[in-house]
Write a structure and sequence with these properties.
- This protein has 359 residues and is an alpha/beta fold.
- The chain has 2 domains: 1-190 and 324-359, 2-Layer Sandwich (Nucleotidyltransferase, domain 5), CATH 3.30.420; 192-323, Nucleotidyltransferase, domain 5 (2-Layer Sandwich).
- It is 34% helix and 26% strand.
- The chain contains 10 helices and 13 strands.
- The protein has a 5-stranded mixed β-sheet.
- The radius of gyration is 20 Å and the shape is globular.
């Protein structure tokens, strides 16, 4: 998305020359694991060079990041990363038509009009969604992140001898995948979602503590929301239902085997709460934009749990699919295998971040 959104969500710009890298690295730092995708651009297509998922043990993010970066094919000093969750926000607003720089100035002055944060405590950025329109009003995507979150991420990278060219948000990284691979030059033979007419698609990235909902209209995100529910909520429900400790509940959650029905029943309230919140967002989007959601893609580690996709399919009235962001890139034969197929849905944010290296 950087080609069109070159200043969008570039919360931090460093006056450091870009490395001449033949590969690009996206680093998704989550709650329970770090995910890395390394790609290279060949002509108009992209090829997967490497992928890694590294657990975060005992909240030791530094060790996880340090370990995962040793596994790239070419060392990098500037992996692109993102932040998410509380203290971040994305909105789409309508304002009088004006140049982007004027939008940015206005946002800096009136940030408290759009965000529940004090303007001196946040970084903001914006992007004009309908640049070609001649209307007097225009749609603008605006975003904010608390300074402490961004500066914390910068410190993490700096302590490891790395620097941030810019820092994004998770929903923007997901939108970036759809933006890049929905371009006219994209490989048409790939299974790329292209919705026509009055429809939009949604991606629900179900993480450990936060689920990010992103609605894509055309080639750009038009709605994003964090729902503060995720895999930890399911673990707690299973723990109470089975009368076991968190470690045992996590084990049963990830490998339910003959206890699958019991696990789904124990998780029912959490999953239904997540669906209810998602439906409220869909209703808002449909009312606001007069576009309906035609398909839901699930991604993230929690979405891979056995029975979760079926549960969503049975409880909402639109098609539901597991999202495979790597369907859009070429995968060399040495990387093809069960582990990549099983984990592909966890790599959407990392892939979207890596794509930012290519203008």
């Amino acid at each position: 998305m950087k080609r069109a959104l070159e200043n969008y969500l570039t919360f931090v710009k460093c006056v450091i020359p870009k490395e001449e890298l033949s590969t690009a690295v996206g680093l998704d730092i989550g709650v329970s694991s770090c995910k890395l995708v390394e790609i290279v651009k060949k002509g108009n297509s992209f090829e997967l060079v490497n992928w890694v998922i590294e657990p975060i043990k005992e909240n030791d993010v530094v060790t996880s990041v340090k370990s995962i970066l040793t596994k790239v094919s070419q060392p990098t000093k500037s992996p692109i990363t993102a932040v998410f969750g509380k203290g971040t926000l994305i909105r789409c607003v309508t304002v009088p038509r004006m140049p982007l720089e004027e939008v940015k100035k206005s946002l800096n002055i009136e940030a408290d009009k759009y965000f529940p944060f004090a303007k001196d405590q946040i970084y903001t950025d914006s992007y004009i969604l309908d640049q070609e329109s001649q209307d007097k009003k225009m749609s603008v995507l605006i975003a904010a992140a608390k300074r402490e979150i961004i500066e914390g991420r910068i410190k993490l990278l700096n302590d490891l001898g790395l620097h941030a060219d810019f820092i994004s948000l998770n929903p923007i990284a997901i939108g970036n995948v759809f933006y890049v691979f929905n371009e006219p030059t994209a490989d048409k033979k790939k299974n790329i979602p292209k919705e026509e007419g009055s429809t939009a698609i949604a991606v629900l990235d179900i993480g450990e503590t936060v689920s990010s909902l992103t609605v894509i209209l055309g080639r750009l995100p038009r709605f994003a929301r964090d729902i503060f529910m995720g895999g930890q909520d399911l673990t707690k429900r299973i723990m109470h239902a089975f009368g076991i400790n968190p470690q045992e509940a996590e084990q049963i959650k990830t490998h339910p085997q003959e206890k699958l029905n019991e696990v789904i029943n124990a998780s029912d309230a959490s999953l239904m709460n997540l669906i209810t919140e998602m439906r409220l967002s869909f209703d808002y989007f449909t009312t606001e934009y007069n576009f309906h959601i035609s398909k839901l893609y699930l991604s993230g580690g929690t979405s891979l749990l056995e029975g979760v996709t079926d549960y969503f399919s049975k409880n909402i009235d639109i098609p539901v699919e597991q999202w495979n962001p790597l369907a859009y890139v070429n995968i060399p034969s040495p990387l093809v295998g069960h582990e990549l197929t099983k984990n592909a849905s966890r790599l959407g944010v990392a892939l979207g971040l890596a794509l930012n290296h290519y203008d």
